[in-house]
Hints:
About 60% of the residues lie in helices and about 10% in strands. It contains 21 helices and eight strands. It is globular, with a radius of gyration of 23 Å. Mean pLDDT is about 90; it is low at about 1-5.
Amino acid sequence: MVSQRTQTGLFDRTANLLELISKMPENISDEETQGVLRVLPPDVRQALSAFFIPSMRATSIVFLKMLGKCFIGAREAQKQGKKVILAPFNFPPELLHAFDSAFPLTSEVLSTVGVIALQGQGERYFNTALGFGLPDHICSANSIALGSILGGEDFRPDALISSAPGGCDVNSKIHEFVAHYLNIPQFFLQKPPDDSQRGRDCYVRYTKRMIRNLEEFLGEKLSEEKLRRVMEKANRCTELNNELWEMQKAKPSPLPNLYSLMLYGTRFTMWGTDAAIENLESMVATAKRRMKDPAFSKRPEKARTLWAYTSYYFDVLGLFNWMDDKGYAHLGDGLDLYFPQAVDCASMDTMIEGWARSAWNMPMTRQVGGESMSGAWTEDIVFAAGDLNADCVIFCGHHSCKQTWSVVSILGKELKKRLGLPILVLQGDSWLKNMTPIGAIQQQIEEFVTHALSRKKRSIKATSRIRDKRRKARGEAKS
């Protein structure tokens, strides 16, 4: 049974791969890297090639080792009698890291790492979920990992957390289905649709109730001292994250495009741990080296793109690295918009309130689950695009997220009106390559950058000429 699981389960296969990577030295040479890649299956080889480019290889290995601690840690935790709790991407994991008897695992991260790194990617697990009668418009982000769990040949969590109602209802329903099917507990944290102080106070009460339920399930009282240690480490993660945000404003951006994925990969898994701090410090160090490199500072940056929702993960080499090679900066996507803030560690109450604020700010909870989805989403994208000096915005239209399709036209109009920025609307599944191939996506991005941005530049020049004429006319009139 163990060997069968090792061969077929998404979690076991991914954990085994990450365990192998965890044994690699950070200073591995080009020749050694090529030797390792040559013996890997094609899908795995292509994915790791994206991370192992010389300019960021050492940082990538630190990141992948951090993910290994997440996956392998979950496996070891269950062997030690701890409860592994499967949570969605919008649940800040530092709260669970503060329990001695719990270990967090994130369903969307399971799916994404599996799609990126495994031979065959995620199609078979998605098809397993469909085989249970789930509709084909469910979200592949979580159903790939959960499909593997439902298939009975994978790692099984001890409980689920549902914190996505209102922000991602599809996520909520499939987690609910899995909890019922596996007959395991499910803990709820729902954001009120009221963005006022009244709604925030209500959210803190919901958080405290969820903590009491977790304490009862785990048989452990949340320790103020342990929570403080974790939150202090989370605050250090916030400092480093904000430093990277500020560095990204430089032109050319010193952050490799893959940093977008690596940042929220850290936020969704090991935030508040030493492994996350080590990873973020490595990312900062790499970005600083690039900023000081004279050759890098002369590198042309043809376009600065901000992605309004998710990116595409079924071919990271064909998206993130391809954009790097083209001179298109990927300034992050909607999943990077978690706007971390330092938590006041003075007392248990201030720490819980600070954690609740972090949960409120998580991607989709903050935007899609806002009092006005179009308003909250637009404000965050307009802010990020303006603050990071983006030239354009790209929307990856995932077929499952019908709610975003209903308001993307509003976002496009507001970007044009407030910042003069064009938006490209793409269609495709971020986790499944059989909907829109990466070649078609590349072609649309290249055409958009070439034509839309050239029109934008002509428009700016025309506006400048009109302003000059008006200023000149006003000067002549005065004389």
